[in-house]
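Reviewer 2 asked us to include a model.

Predict the structure of this chain.
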Amino acid sequence: MTKKFTHIDQDSPSMVDVGQKEVTERTAIAQAIVQLPDDMKPYITDGEIRTLKGPVFQTAIIAGIQGAKKTSELIPLCHQLNLNKVDIQISVNEDLEVKITSLAKCSGKTGVEMEALTGASVAALTIYDMCKAFSHNIVIKETKLIKKTGGKSDYQL
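Predicted model (structure tokens):
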């Protein structure tokens, strides 16, 4: 079976027509990992980094939610969705790996993977932005889809 790209119509980009699809409950979970350098360890207190700009992880949570809500404005062929929920969780371990988990939910005709991925990505970029005054050796290591449900098929990493 040959797969074809759904966003290309006769060699030009187009938005996929989801008008005939059934509305189903859709969820997606994405994760981003940010590696902080060792010299940032003294700045982490009680699972948070405080800067002149404010609390880093709390700000990144708000930015991630805002990013998920604006996905269709950032990714050209994404459908605009009415999100039922966006939840961003951030934790840091002893190796200074910051794990960002982004959950997006909606009742719709198309999935919320891009919203979950955008939420995780924007949160990671916010952490970089707020911490770059301490170090430019911050690495956004990976952003990936962990799980999706609803629609034609489910997925779990």
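The CA atoms of residues 46 and 60 lie 16 Å apart. The mean pLDDT is 91. We have added this to the supplementary material.
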